[in-house]
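Standup notes
- DV: blocked on the single-chain target, sequence here:
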Amino acid sequence: EAAALLDRLEPLCESPIPIVRSQSWQGVCQLTRLGNSDAMRLLLRMLERPRPSPQLIRETRVVVDEAPHGSVAMRVQELLSHRLPAVRAAAIGALERVILREATLRERIFTSLDSNDADIRAAAFHALLPLFSHDEETEKQLRQRLTAANLDAFHAAIREDGTLLIEDDKLRALVYQLLKDASARTRGTLLSL
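- DV (later): unblocked, structure below
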């Protein structure tokens, strides 16, 4: 039955209609998560394209979370070095839960905080902020990079998950400190949180 479903999904993965493509990718990811090897091969082929879709990469999160050391997760980790910023940002997003658990991967993400691309910086902040009060090295790396140049990325990450400021006293205290010490533009950005 899974083989028949996959046969129907495969051509839909190339649909010109974005919602059809997205739903097909979700189906392939779910089949992969459930252990279907044909679905995994199809998913890996799509991820190995020169320009894999950032949306597809984000959809792999269900597979990556289930098997953080599996072949799909390893391929997504390789995409952290892709030449396209949107692909790198999507890979960070797909790996968020793995980043929370694995210090070696977290160290790779620290470098993304310095990216020239705002989306990559925002994805890195979003992936790392939940660890702010729980991991000294992450806190140190984030504090070093919370500058006016990175404020928009920090702002985007906080706005994506507004519960961070509510739940994390230490992070909230940092924002209050930034409000006291920052320029008017920086205060305005922070106050819009």
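- Follow-up: The chain has a mean pLDDT of 89.
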